[in-house]
Amino acid sequence: MIREIKEQFTEEILTEAIKRYDINNDSIRSLGGYESFVYEYQKNNVFYILKISHTIRRSINNIRGEIEFLNFLSNKGLAVSNAVPSTRGNMVEEIAADNGSFLAISYEMALGNEVSGDDWNESLYEKWGEFLGKIHHATKGYEGSNPALKRQAWDQEVQLKAEKYLRPDDAMIPILKERLAKLTSLPKSKDTYGLTHTDFHQSNFYLHNGHIYLFDFDDCSYTYFIHDIGITLCYALFCPFKEFENKAEYYKLFFRHFMKGYLKENTIQEEEIEYLHDSIKLRYALMYVYFHQANDVSQLDEASMNWLQELQRVAASGDPMLPIDFVQEFKSIYTSIH
């Protein structure tokens, strides 16, 4: 949690949000939260999510843009958690604070259950890729209703965070700029770039009758589709929900089935696949920046400092992230299905 947000949050803010959504105090429980305060509540035997963010991170129009995109994907037949209005009929409720405002949004609770180790298999990998391919295919036809609601571009947000939370002499700043420059050298077109989830990891979807139900679009932004794939791979390959004795074989197995599913719904070029290692390294750089947002790094314990140093080492390394040739694997997958 960003420290400036955490320091401003009070019980009075939560009480006001509860009032505006007519929530029974006995039905609400905290789910924690990474960048926002997140709660679960029940009304008329239906479960919902209450998320309280802050204008330090998102403007009201920015969140309205998220909700508009959710509605678009839902209308395209994708299973996503839609937002629900407050008792005043607002999709976003603004609650004044000392520095800016807190923003309360409520969503339908995703159907299904959390992903478990038992679910972690080739069938899931393929469905995962297929779902992301559907988002990328759908967003090619997305046009927002109002320029004021347009979501941010991924690189704009990254640069702002780095300059705000890292010291001017931090070695990660030039590394981050280098990673950004490499990825942004890709050509932008409706076939390579668009509004997408940008945080599609295994803790942001449930499985409902064997199908994916996606939620938490808080980070949705305009980015390269290959970068969006890289974000998913970063979490799925390094943090699987079960152990694999032969990690190199697991990496290949996941990638093959994930991309097989993806290519059912969307196309991507070999030239884009070449950027996957860089995209994963960029994610490590962003986690390094976020760690500075959320923590006083001068007060870290040994384990946290080691993790921070590891993030920096991986992001700065010129070596491939994984013992896998994504391009060769992609060629093999592409050939097998055509």
Report on this structure.
With 338 residues, the chain is α+β, with helices and mostly antiparallel strands. It folds into two domains: 3-108, 2-Layer Sandwich (Phosphorylase Kinase, domain 1), CATH 3.30.200; 113-337, Aminoglycoside phosphotransferase (APH), C-terminal lobe (Aminoglycoside 3'-phosphotransferase, Chain: A, domain 2). Helix content is 46%, strand content 15%. The protein is built from twelve helices and eleven strands. The protein has helices spanning 3-8, 11-20, 60-75, 122-139, 154-165, 172-183, 225-238, 247-265, 270-273, 276-294, 302-316, 326-337, and strands at residues 29-32, 37-43, 46-54, 83-84, 93-96, 101-108, 113-114, 193-196, 205-208, 211-214, 221-224. Strands 1, 2, 3, 4, 5 and 6 form a six-stranded antiparallel beta sheet that branches. Strand 9 (205-208) and strand 10 form a beta hairpin. The radius of gyration is 20 Å and the shape is globular.
Topology (elements, then pairings):
Blueprint: H1 3-8, H2 11-20, E1 29-32, E2 37-43, E3 46-54, H3 60-75, E4 83-84, E5 93-96, E6 101-108, E7 113-114, H4 122-139, H5 154-165, H6 172-183, E8 193-196, E9 205-208, E10 211-214, E11 221-224, H7 225-238, H8 247-265, H9 270-273, H10 276-294, H11 302-316, H12 326-337
Antiparallel strand pairs: 1-2, 2-3, 3-6, 4-6, 5-6, 7-9, 8-11, 9-10
